[in-house]
Amino acid sequence: MKVELLNYTKDGDKLIAQAAKLCYSEAGLKEINENLSPEEVDRFVHMLTSLGHMSPMEHISFSFYVEGISRACSHQLVRHRLASYSQQSQRYVRLDDFDYVIPPAIEKNPRAREVFIEAIKRDQEAYEDLVQALMEEGMKDKNLTDKEKNALEKRAIEDARYVFPNACATKVMVTMNLRSLLHFFEMRTCLRAQWEIRNLAIEMLKEVKKVYPLLFQEAGPGCLRGPCPEGKMTCGKIKEVRAYFQGGQDD
Amino acid sequence: MKVELLNYTKDGDKLIAQAAKLCYSEAGLKEINENLSPEEVDRFVHMLTSLGHMSPMEHISFSFYVEGISRACSHQLVRHRLASYSQQSQRYVRLDDFDYVIPPAIEKNPRAREVFIEAIKRDQEAYEDLVQALMEEGMKDKNLTDKEKNALEKRAIEDARYVFPNACATKVMVTMNLRSLLHFFEMRTCLRAQWEIRNLAIEMLKEVKKVYPLLFQEAGPGCLRGPCPEGKMTCGKIKEVRAYFQGGQDD
Amino acid sequence: MKVELLNYTKDGDKLIAQAAKLCYSEAGLKEINENLSPEEVDRFVHMLTSLGHMSPMEHISFSFYVEGISRACSHQLVRHRLASYSQQSQRYVRLDDFDYVIPPAIEKNPRAREVFIEAIKRDQEAYEDLVQALMEEGMKDKNLTDKEKNALEKRAIEDARYVFPNACATKVMVTMNLRSLLHFFEMRTCLRAQWEIRNLAIEMLKEVKKVYPLLFQEAGPGCLRGPCPEGKMTCGKIKEVRAYFQGGQDD
Amino acid sequence: MKVELLNYTKDGDKLIAQAAKLCYSEAGLKEINENLSPEEVDRFVHMLTSLGHMSPMEHISFSFYVEGISRACSHQLVRHRLASYSQQSQRYVRLDDFDYVIPPAIEKNPRAREVFIEAIKRDQEAYEDLVQALMEEGMKDKNLTDKEKNALEKRAIEDARYVFPNACATKVMVTMNLRSLLHFFEMRTCLRAQWEIRNLAIEMLKEVKKVYPLLFQEAGPGCLRGPCPEGKMTCGKIKEVRAYFQGGQDD
User: Structurally, what CATH architecture does the domain formed by C6-87+169-246 represent?
Assistant: First the structure.
């Protein structure tokens, strides 16, 4: 999995503080700016976060480029509706020898690993066989132009991809505003989230912490900021989870 | 594919006319209702549709139950963000001998069909082998309670499903308001849409036409209401497409 | 203020239970329905609410007709973006002797009440004077058709309404799905919310409780379900607030 | 009215081209970047715009600071739901001698102007009288701390503002992504839009054209890109409107 922070709102913390101040002040923006020291920005951002006043957070956003997640993972990812996505199309792009994601538990289990790799290989072969069978039928006794051949191939790969496994890797660009992103982190860095989207969320969190350490200081699963929101479905590991997110995720 | 209209706003056309009248009238709702004959409702709904004044359309919504579409299709479906979804989870539900969708072009091509069915069978076997290998490892030299075994199985199927193909069938409940639904029909009944989601959209359209023929009278691809919006990417079959949607889709 | 529940999803609790069951069950809808007793529905809805698993709640929605709230209130109301609105237009509707909302604290204070009523009356006169002055100018030395006179009047009221006060009453139709509605109740029934939108939220809550007592059993400000989310900005009256919402709002 | 482009996504056109290319290419982002000349970016952006493929446009966004629009205008503005707002609160900010917006047709009509200014003045007086009457009542025979006095004042201005007119000026920060912004321009630069929000939209369009001339080349009312979408409600001035937007708005 590769996660890159492709673009984000510069001076975003300042923008948040400006927005928040605007709501409660007689002053216009010019006057607000004159009194907005970096310390004041920090103080404001911290106050908003702790009070859960999230609307000023919407003014700034983050764009990620993600490569090497599975289609199982991307199907979960795009369920977050307050976000924008551009994803590599399996309909338009011919993917011979596709990349794939192997779950860690399968990687570590020799028998499972063998079964898995074998299944992937056969899917790759089936894909190629299907493209070939469909194209041969389309070309039989015909003299197609290059353009017609391209159209034929497109139709063939559109159908052949039905044998691609969930493990098949995809590429996607994701943009979320800060409010939506914090919610994403809350849901998906939780230990009860599925391992792959959890890894994705953690990588994304690492990236944004590099550029805005303060804004994401308390970002992570709900249990960082109160009791476990999962109730009796809790993972039961609050202490470890808190230590991981608050102590730095790099070790 | 099975599509069922599970629930929808009753007296929805009346609600739309009420909402639209409210905007432009001094009268309150009571007085509006007194002057709202069925003919008046029809006239209003038609006028709004033709002017593209869509906001009153948002007050009514439609819930569908869909069974037997592929995960390739559901991944596209959930990209429509102004909608609500509840989908059968591959993480929580063990799916031995899963159902699957076979693309028509593959169904009709004997060689492709053979390759496809064979691939599906091997995926089913790989899934079962993976679940078994992962569970055996987890149980080795241990005496697990039933609860622990369940947890173990859940983790195993969560990973084993990475070999499921796109063709794997899923079940999903979808709710959209009328405005969002009309947009969905516009995008997805177009001949350039992928065949499976196009079939889904057409089935959904048939269902809602049964209960509100007038509301969906002009629903369908953009070319029903003007020139092809795809420009030079057009399918070039406007005449046939119009005949299909305006002449009744049953033949 | 008049609040009417105009339309809502029938069998909504059942729909929620179906949606939730679908996610975690191998069964299709038919089988799910066979095992869905009213008690089972209740149990499911309660479980989802307590776990905060809100997505199945989105499948059902509620439409309200609201009359006699101020434009100050409607400006706040339409800030809730996951909702649909149709509001009486001040641009299109001539409102001589407009209705208005008088804040209770002003109603009770004789001096303030006098100032307020006087201000309203003068605004009504200014509105009429402005419409007249603008129309006279437009008609001077001209022989307008009725259609031209109507267009002229429309332009005049569009501008004259700039003297309407925030207190001016409006009519609006609102539709929200259950998830969004519960969030609205959480924000707006809080004692720290502005009194008018709080009254509106409480009236709406009363209406929906009549048709779905169980679904809205725990609806209300955040402090009904945990500590005050406003932190040190708390109203400090948790006990009274809880008694009010849990003991019945009718006294 | 003052409109300032406060923040926006840098290299936004490149981001759009990257997103679009990602969907249809086998290549990862690195390889895409290597082949992305400024000309190629321009070509892609133009193609997407003309085809109406809007989803890659969502990755970039624009934040505006707006001062001196009326509350009549801001009430319309916040109806655009795919956007984020932070607005100066009339509940929290005491606004003696508030600024206001005077409609041009009223400004030009001496009689109307006099009525209007007079109405504004009396509203300002009524506001101050109300604050005073409410505070006097609250302080009568009591010895309030400064904090209690502040709370009292806050409650007073919260109610006194009910006499503020629609003309009362407000300050607001708005953020929209490009897709939503283009839709806003389509709706609100139309001659049939109300004059004040139309002026706002035109000012916003001027600001963004300075930083991304190509992206907004065809932005404006629907009639720039086809027949008038308003049908028989058309303003009938397509030629003038097109000349205005396509010839430069500065004269």
Answer: 2-Layer Sandwich (3.30)
